[in-house]
Structure formats: structure tokens, C-alpha cells
Amino acid sequence: MNRLKLLILSSAFVFLPGCAVWDAYFMANYDNVEYAITNKVRTFAQLAAEDCNDYDKSKANFNRIYGYGLELRNFTQYIPDNKDAAKLGSNIEELTKQAKDHYAKNITVSENFCKLKLQQITRSAETAQQVIGAKPR
Amino acid sequence: MNLEQLESAINEAKSIYEAGEISASEYKNLLEGFEVEKIVTINAEELQKKEELNKIVTALVTGLSVVL
């Protein structure tokens, strides 16, 4: 019976793609800080929606959100076996940078743009948070 | 976020733009954002698959340890 179990388990290893198995088995574990920074991007983007009728406050808010996005990208970047989370960090940083740059280049920005951009950031950060939070313990 | 939700958000932004409630440069910026959102969805799915595979492999290794 034990030999049969061993045969079944060994076969499973053989039939799963080798690199994928290796990558998955040795992937970086759940990281409290990584999760917290992602949550900070999402939460602050949710709060910032209240200020969308005020250009100066919104500009400051987007600068701050970009700071959190950059922090996420930098934090995830050099953790070994963490390339998927690092990609998400880089994506979120890019999204926050788009908004920050738009405010830097324009002296008037519509309230609708502010709200829609914050929704993009919120949705993306939430998506990232779901998978970052589910990493192996 | 799934691709259906993303499509709905894209349509909403398009309607707002067509109603003249955001400028062309704002709409362009939002479209660039939707591209990034799509990549976020794909990258998140990749990480999710890896997490699922990790659970399987960990269970197999644990099982093997018991057997051996």
C-alpha cells in the first residue's frame, strides 16, 4: 500500500511542469509589511475620494498615494522568489505615477477624473491585496 | 477585480468622456490606467495559480515525508 502511495505521489511530481513546481514550492512566504503597504495604497485611495472637489488637496493626495506605490514597488523588488508580487508592486506604482504626473502637468483637473483614477488604484490595490494576503505562511 | 468589472469601468469612463465631463487628456490617462489594471489582473491570476500549486506541492511533500 505504501509503495502504491509513493508511486502516485511521485507520478504527480513527474506530470507537473518541473519549473512551475519548483517556483511554487520555493515562492516567497506571506509578508506582513508587503500586505500592509498594499492596504495603505488601497485605504488612502478610498479616503482621498472625499477630496476630489479640491484640486490642491487632491494633488497632495495623489503625491502621497504615489509615495505608497513607490514604497510597495521598492519593498517587493529584492525579496527572493517574489517576482509575482514585485510585478504587482510595479504595476501599482505605475498607476499611481500616472495620476501624480497628470496633476503635475495640469492646473485644472476634473472631479470625475480624480474619482475614476482613485477607483482604478483602489481596484488594483484590492486585487493585489487578495493574492498577497493568500501567500503561503 | 475580474475582466467583466474592468469592462464595465471602461464603459463608464467612455460615457463620462462622451458626455464631456472629462477632458481628452484625462480620458487618455484613464485608458492607460485600464491597460495597467488589465496587467494587474493577469499578474494576480499568475500569483494565485502559484499559490494553489504551492498548496498541492506542499501537501505532496508532506505526504511523501510520512510515507518515506
Overall pLDDT level of chain B: 92
As a percent range, the share of helical residues of chain A equals over 70%
Number of strands of chain A: 0
Characterize the biggest β-sheet of chain B: none
Q: Helicity of chain B, in percent?
A: over 70%
Q: What is the multimeric organization of the chains shown?
A: heterodimer
How far is the first residue's CA from the last residue's CA of chain A?
32 Å
Topology record:
The complex is a heterodimer of chains A (137) and B (68).
Chain A: H1 2-15, H2 18-25, H3 32-48, H4 55-77, H5 83-105, H6 111-132
Chain B: H1 3-18, H2 24-67
Structural account:
The complex is a heterodimer of chains A (137) and B (68). Chain A has 137 residues and is mainly α. Helices cover 78% and strands 0% of the residues of chain A. Chain A has 6 helices and no strands. Chain A is elongated, with a radius of gyration of 20 Å. The relative contact order of chain A is 0.16. The model of chain A has no long low-confidence stretch (mean pLDDT 91). By secondary structure, chain B is mainly alpha-helical. In chain B, 88% of the residues lie in helices and 0% in strands. Chain B has helices at 3-18, 24-67. The longest helix of chain B is centred in the last third of the chain and has 44 residues, at 24-67. Chain B is rod-shaped. The model of chain B has no long low-confidence stretch (mean pLDDT 92). The interface between A and B is large, with 44 and 41 residues.
Keywords:
heterodimer; A: 137 residues; mainly alpha; 6 helices; B: 68 residues; 2 helices
Provide a quick synopsis of the model.
The complex is a heterodimer of chains A (137) and B (68). In chain A, 78% of the residues lie in helices and 0% in strands.
